[in-house]
Amino acid sequence: MSANITIKDVAKRAGVSEATVSRALNDSPQVKRATRQKIQAIAHSLGYRPNGLARSIRVQQSHTLGMIIPDILNGFFTQLSRAIEDAASQAGYDVLIVNTDEHLQKEAKGINLMLEKQVDGLIITSAGASTDYPKMLGNTPAVFVDRMPPADVVSQYDRVLVDNVQGTQDIIGCLIDRGARRVGIINSAVSATAQERLKGYHRALRAAGLPTDPATEATARVDGSNVPQMARQLLVNQKCDALFAADNTIMTGVLSKLPELSLSDFQLGAFDDNDWFDFLPQPIVTAKQPIAELGRIAVERLLARINDGQLPTQEFRLAAQIIPRPTATHP
Amino acid sequence: MSANITIKDVAKRAGVSEATVSRALNDSPQVKRATRQKIQAIAHSLGYRPNGLARSIRVQQSHTLGMIIPDILNGFFTQLSRAIEDAASQAGYDVLIVNTDEHLQKEAKGINLMLEKQVDGLIITSAGASTDYPKMLGNTPAVFVDRMPPADVVSQYDRVLVDNVQGTQDIIGCLIDRGARRVGIINSAVSATAQERLKGYHRALRAAGLPTDPATEATARVDGSNVPQMARQLLVNQKCDALFAADNTIMTGVLSKLPELSLSDFQLGAFDDNDWFDFLPQPIVTAKQPIAELGRIAVERLLARINDGQLPTQEFRLAAQIIPRPTATHP
DNA sequence: CTGAAAGCGCTAACAG
DNA sequence: CTGTTAGCGCTTTCAG
């Protein structure tokens, strides 16, 4: 951000006022064709580049969206961020991304940062239910994706999520159809989502007339560090014949433990799909989230709210697609 | 970016001038302790949030770095972006990310965007050798990571890369040590990098006294669409007993084709490592890039250049670490 | 220690 | 169709 050439330089060089240059550069129809072209030519030859900050500050909007995600290394969020970027850029908006590492403090810092950068709106995947979002956000529009805002303020925000209950129920149902009689679950630590997935798990068991057993239900730490040990606990000690991992990270933890357990004849299910699951010897039944859709709707909704702050808030629930995996290629 | 409360509001409320508020908020030592605390309290109670754009425009720097990457879905770049974000934020800089999808046009648009947003510097993983960076960038500092800038302007920019020759040579050498006699390569389309990796491949063959054969050398399309077919060509038609994939994307293409070829007794090597490679039945020898280092150095260097535009440019070559994979766990 | 005033680069009335 | 003027929110001389 060094001594750059400004609108003033162009104006001087073109022998017109700054206002005219501004108009010409913005293709205002109310400037003579000839002048406009001349000005644009001069601007180009001078290597003029508009200062977006100055513009934003003047017009009172940045045309920029902020996005708060907990872990960019997690494939789900990488894809989500990609989807959101695509949708936003199609609407002429840029997006700023901040990683929270699931830390509330980093999240707070990130949100602050974005507000200072004057984003027009925020897309948030919350790192925790304890944050006072209304106070943090002020009147900056926000939509929550993938994770619910804290219960006491849900109704104040739009949210777009996947149907966790149904998705989980489908997976477990599929495992049972294929012969599972004792299904273990390693759930995530994210409260609302975890509850829904647990509910789906229970429903599937009940629907099949199988008993629930607290001994087959475990909850992973947010960093996943205790997952391998839990996998062992459930598959070996508890003799589960199928194991459900409630998300991406958890499934990875499970997979890392499997070789040393050297079991056979058990099934695997997981929420969130990964392309490379196709390459594994052990098939995994997954629920694939409609990530592009999630992103598209979130952006759409956020932009709508930016244009009309009074819009009533809404919840969007999208169905997850079950990928049974052992099919054609996996006999 | 709606009607927010400004420094003026705080000043009025505190009965002081805007200047004093500004000083107080920036912890200037030249404002009386009492006034400062009072002002800060008022600012807080009013929910005042500084307008970063206004500040940036005034002080002529944004404390923001821009990052241009070709594909955020590629694990290598996700990790790289993460590393860069970490390093930058530690230095008090934010980072803006733009995805190019390997499209020169998107890259140009992205760079433009960042410049308009007045980033203080740019970290670029170039999408093509044909771009006229000096013209695009003007005097905004930039460092190139992972991919060389165009040959005619290399010397104008800092670059931080991995030692592709050595890394590849190590992988191929390892495959040969384990018995490979006819090693195929599917190279990437990225020119400079590809040449280096091909060189390493040739060197390893020569060192082992093996012949090179153009029939065992293929080049993937940038989108990887023809990789599966190439894998078939090399492994089946050309009867290679080992296959080297020059990057992440290519390896994925190869893996997707393997099941239907149902071969046995062949080896796999790849540049770029992925955690999930550990879970595959077929071990893969990889060269793992020191991504955190790459990011750290890039940021360090960029910041140094921001502070001193006259700094002589430099090239950093980091060693890739070979992961032989069939070890302890893979007998 | 604090205030008044100028100005970063840009756009939006308001005149002409 | 174009110029003049004012001002977005902030920091920074320069005075006091």
TrEMBL record, chains A, B:
Residues 5-59 form the HTH lacI-type domain. PROSITE patterns: HTH_LACI_1, HTH_LACI_2. Keywords: DNA-binding, Repressor, Transcription, Transcription regulation. SMART domains: HTH_LACI (SM00354). SUPFAM superfamilies: lambda repressor-like DNA-binding domains (SSF47413), Periplasmic binding protein-like I (SSF53822). Pfam families: LacI (PF00356), Peripla_BP_1 (PF00532). GO terms for molecular function: DNA-binding transcription factor activity; transcription cis-regulatory region binding. PANTHER family: HTH-TYPE TRANSCRIPTIONAL REPRESSOR PURR-RELATED, LACI-RELATED TRANSCRIPTIONAL REPRESSOR. This is Catabolite control protein A. It comes from Levilactobacillus hammesii DSM 16381.
